[in-house]
Amino acid sequence: MRFLQEFLKSLFPFRISRFIPIFIVTGDLAFLISSFFGAVQVQGNSLESVFSRPVYYWFFLFAILSWFACVLVLKSFTIKRIKSLDRVAKDTIETLLYHIFLVSVYIVATEAYFIPRNYLLSFYSFFITGIFAWRFSIYLSLGYFRRHGLNYRNVVIIGYNPYGLSLKQYFEKNPELGYRFKGFFDHRPHRNSSIVGKFQRSMEEFLKQENIDEVYVCQSYLKHRYFRHLVRFTESHFLKIKLLPDIKGLIFDDLELEFYSDLPIVSFRREPLQNEMNAALKRVFDVVFSSLVLCSICSWLFPIIAILIKLDSKGPVFFFQKRSGRAGKDFLCLKFRTMVVNEEADIRQATRDDSRITRLGRFLRESNIDELPQFINVLLGDMSVVGPRPHMLRHTEEYSKTISNYMLRHLIKPGVTGLAQAKGYRGQTNDNFSMRNRVRVDILYIERWSFFLDIKVIGLTLLNMMRGQDNAY
How far apart are alpha carbons 390 and 413 in whole angstroms? Predict the structure, then answer.
């Protein structure tokens, strides 16, 4: 293995990492072209006959340009050291979904409907299989090489404290990341073999002799009089210096750094749907998905349900109720009526053995069929297919006073289904603890939104509908 290390170092005396994005994009292009030609062969056509038709030529050109656009916008051309395989898969899926969306828009806009569906299916079958195999192989190969001493970074940590020790353990437990820990520097005396010196100018010689690549500084050392000199030294010697902040006492899930001119601004909450492209994709999906549901299922199911409701009890077929929407604004939420007409519908939540629920209504609630009319709310723009479930105005007023981050769930449109409901947090909320769990998952959805997550929530919802849920009433 040592011979292999020395041999590869002689072949690549420079940092391989800087060429990985070019390597990835080049491979993407190769698989894209191969998939195009492979789909042509599957269809039994010759390349001459295909390229003699401009529609295929322009489709091929658009497929390449749109893929590069998606890769650049979503920044999925990098595989950072701290990136997990799960993250690589999600980034790849997200890029593929955006590409499929753009290609679909192109076909509609150019009226290229005569491109065979079998061709498109073959093209994406080849491309999806190839792109996953390609990116996974790069990720696993990098991890293998780094575990065996190639493409590594020498690092030191300034500050022997719990934060520094946690970072050291992270480096040692994840050898595939390629970090070699060389020791601590601290200005206080300690009896520990991992401390290689004091935080002072004498450490500069160590940084040069050990070929240190990255220096991690605990926040408590920022006010040390030597720190400014250290920053100048590392920059002049092309070393990376990074801050390990002391976040004790701060509770947040994510950070996002922005620059207002030259002023660094840290946001304590990440909101992917603030991105116009993400918001547009979600809205297009909402319109398409809800239209398909209303046309294919509700067109024949609604009349049947309406007749059964009328036969089961007196009252209207639909039930309108004011619910809290995006930014706390009220809207009329539409459902099938599942209770006898009563004056407490807007102030009292349904319970397991609620006498107000009709026989048919109990079935509609357990099967979630009572929520189907809300796809009309989706088309009207009041709701989304996936999002935090809308609550009664009374609950919003009540829980906003007792749960500090409750109103954060109204940062986006409410959904016909949601991550909290897919995870089992649905039905009656008897106490603040139950509602806090629901709110926690709702906020997690807002911060971690992706098109892939929406598809996952819809799949979990369908699975729960088939299995049934104990708290569906």
Answer: 9
Q: How confident is the model at residue 142 (pLDDT cuts 50, 70, 90)?
A: confident
User: Can you tell me the mean pLDDT for 425-448?
Assistant: 80
From the list 171, 142, 176, the residue with the least C-alpha distance to 155 is 171
Answer whether 155's CB lies under 8 Å from 214's CB. Answer: yes
Q: Can you state the angle between helices 85-110 and 276-293, rounded to 10 degrees?
A: 70
Per-residue model confidence (pLDDT) at position 286: 93
Smallest Cα–Cα separation from 237: which of 263, 211, 217, 265? 211
CA torsion angle 402 404 406 409 (round to 10): 180
Summarised one tens digit per residue, pLDDT across range 218-277 is 877 666 677 777 887 887 777 888 887 765 545 455 566 666 555 556 666 678 888 777
Q: Which residue has the higher pLDDT, 4 or 56?
A: 56
CA 438 vs. chain centroid, Å, equals 19
CB proximity list for 336: less than 8 A, separation 6 or greater = 305, 309, 317, 318, 319, 364, 369, 370, 372, 373
Please check the confidence at residue 4 and state whether its pLDDT lies above 70. no
Give the model's confidence band at 101: pLDDT under 50 very low, under 70 low, under 90 confident, else very high.
Answer: confident
Output the pLDDT for position 398.
86
pLDDT in the model for residue 13: 44
Q: What is this structure's pTM?
A: 0.56
More confident residue, 252 or 346: 346
